Each structure stands twice: as structure tokens, then as C-alpha cells.
């Protein structure tokens, strides 16, 4: 229930330079985005099948793509929202909030589903996803309250996360910055520059989660540009690193708790081994669902599988 979740989480104040780039007038407050309607959830908070159903409903309503890459991060986001992200008063713009940087912005439907669970987005807003006049588009945009960065150009989010982590250090704040990065996105040079930056400035308040689903838009990551052993690479960049099953909520929660206790001047990383399209049998590991739209038949079949979980 919404009341049980309020006050359980936190956000962080922006670096003055970043705040100047995105003025208050440029951000959409909740009432502008989706009215004042709030809906109560009868399910366990951030229950993955419920989140996947919301994603399917959005994708079908908006005739939209990126289902597979949203499904692979469902458990990651569920655990972060349920147990780790802090938002005083459940306020997505609170000055002391933690930051969630969704660098792989094409997975934004999973974040919208969590925002609905928090009570920040009503079901009517999800039903308008990707339609004319909506503020909920197919890539994360910082103008939407509850999203921190615009995630269309892959490779840039981790740099923003590192900047936010440095700002929190300057403020002597206990705020944390979490960044979700795709393994295909790790092909981009700015990811590695941000890692160098984070290690140099000893940003142990920055935690990167790599969604390692082994695919990107144009094919398998090993075929497009093989990233090799990502855990070894993060460790070589002086990150405390854990590797887990990205769909095992207990393992994710444990890794997050372990890394958060290490305030040792080293940034943190979790390599989350995931399955693209996780949760629907005909989507799992099938990269066609990066760009395929649902038909009434595939929507019904997918909903049936998710609801039977």
C-alpha cells in the first residue's frame, strides 16, 4: 500500500551547475504531468509480475518498442525502489533525495511502472504512454518528475551520475547515486571516462549497476563489440565489484547492502547478469523484442504468462 511506502526513501540535491541547466520551470511537476490522481496498489510493492504487466499495458497502448530491455531491469529497479532509494516523504523532488540515473533510457517503461507503484503516476498516465500529447515518451527525459537524466544518447548517464556523486561529496551529504547502465552501452567511451573520474575522486557514494543481458539493439554484444570480462574491467578501474543474477532479488539486495557498507573511497559496481525479455517465454533472449511491437495476440499471450506467475 502507498502509505506503507511513504517516507521509506530519499533523493539528493543537484550540483549548482547541473541545477542551472535544468531550471525549476523546465521540470514538470506531478500535477502538470498526470493530474493529482493517486492510486493505491493492492499488490506487494514493486512485485516484478505487476511491473511487467504495467510495461506490457504501456507498450500495447502506445504501440511502442523496447519491451525486452525494460523487462531485463525489472528486478533491479524493484529492489532499488523497495529497499534502497531514499525519498523523504515520498517526494521525488526532495532536496535530500538519492538519485537514480537511468543511463539506459530505453528501459524507461520499467521506471514508469515503479513510479506508478510509488503513487507518482496514475494508471491513466500509463495508458497515455507514447501517445500524442503525453509527457511519458519512449526514452527517459529529465523534464518528467521522477527521472533525473535524459537517456536517449547512450553513454552519458554515468558521467552525470559521477558529477552528482561529487556534488554530494562537496556538500558532505550521505546521499547515494545509483546508475543503471546497459552492457551494450558500455561500448561508449564516456562510460570509461566516467569510471576514471569516479575512481580519481574517490566517489564511494556512486553505485553502478550493469544490466548485462548480452544484447544491444543490433545484436549480441559479443558480436557487435565484445566487452569481455566487465567485472574484471571495473575492478581494474578501482571499483568494488560484485557479480549477481540480476533477477534474483535477494542476491541483488545482498550485493547492494554489502557494497553500501564499504565507505572506503572506492566507487561500487554490480554486474547483474540478466535475460533480455525476462518474464515472457517467447521474448526471453530473443533480440527481436528490442524493436517489435505487440499485436493483440502477442499482448494477450504475454499478459497470460505474466499473470500466471
Q: Summed up, what is this model?
A:
The protein is α/β, with parallel strands linked by helices and 309 residues long. 40% of the residues lie in helices and 11% in strands. It has one domain: Rossmann fold, CATH 3.40.50.
Question: If you had to describe this structure to a student in words, what would you say it looks like?
Answer:
By secondary structure, the protein is of the alpha/beta class. The chain has a single domain, classed as Rossmann fold (3-Layer(aba) Sandwich), CATH 3.40.50. Helices cover 40% and strands 11% of the residues. Strands 1-2-3-7-6 form a five-stranded parallel beta sheet, with helices on both faces. A two-stranded antiparallel ribbon has the order 4-5. The chain is globular and about 50 Å long. The N terminus is likely disordered.
Amino acid at each position: 500500500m502507498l502509505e506503507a511506502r511513504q517516507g521509506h526513501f530519499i533523493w539528493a540535491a543537484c550540483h549548482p551547475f547541473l541545477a542551472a541547466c535544468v531550471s525549476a520551470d523546465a521540470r514538470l511537476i506531478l500535477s502538470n504531468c498526470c493530474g493529482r490522481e493517486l492510486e493505491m496498489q493492492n499488490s506487494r510493492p514493486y512485485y516484478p509480475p505487476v511491473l511487467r504487466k504495467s510495461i506490457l499495458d504501456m507498450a500495447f497502448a502506445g504501440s511502442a518498442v523496447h519491451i525486452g530491455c525494460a523487462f531485463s531491469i525489472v528486478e533491479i529497479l524493484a529492489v532499488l525502489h523497495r529497499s534502497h532509494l531514499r525519498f523523504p516523504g515520498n517526494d521525488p523532488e526532495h532536496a535530500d533525495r538519492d538519485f537514480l540515473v537511468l543511463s539506459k533510457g530505453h528501459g524507461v517503461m520499467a521506471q514508469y511502472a515503479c513510479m506508478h507503484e510509488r503513487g507518482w503516476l496514475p494508471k491513466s498516465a500509463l495508458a497515455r504512454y507514447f501517445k500524442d500529447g503525453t509527457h511519458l515518451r519512449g526514452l527517459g527525459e529529465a523534464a518528467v518528475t521522477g527521472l533525473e537524466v535524459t537517456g536517449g544518447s547512450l553513454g552519458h548517464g554515468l558521467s552525470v551520475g559521477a558529477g552528482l556523486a561529487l556534488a554530494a561529496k562537496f556538500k558532505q551529504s550521505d546521499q547515494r547515486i545509483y546508475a543503471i547502465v546497459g552492457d551494450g552501452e558500455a561500448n561508449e567511451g564516456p562510460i570509461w571516462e566516467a569510471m576514471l573520474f569516479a575512481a580519481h575522486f574517490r566517489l564511494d557514494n556512486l553505485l553502478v549497476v550493469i544490466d548485462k543481458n548480452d544484447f544491444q539493439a543490433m545484436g549480441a554484444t559479443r558480436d557487435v563489440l565484445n566487452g569481455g570480462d566487465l567485472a574484471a574491467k571495473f575492478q581494474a578501474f578501482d571499483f568494488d565489484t560484485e557479480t549477481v543474477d540480476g533477477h534474483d532479488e535477494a542476491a541483488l539486495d545482498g550485493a547492494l547492502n554489502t557494497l553500501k557498507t564499504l565507505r572506503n573511497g572506492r566507487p561500487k559496481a554490480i554486474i547483474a547478469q540478466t535475460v533480455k525479455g525476462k518474464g515472457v517465454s517467447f521474448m526471453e533472449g530473443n533480440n527481436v523484442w528490442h524493436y517489435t511491437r505487440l499485436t493483440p495476440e502477442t499482448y494477450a499471450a504475454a499478459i497470460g504468462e505474466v499473470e500466471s506467475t
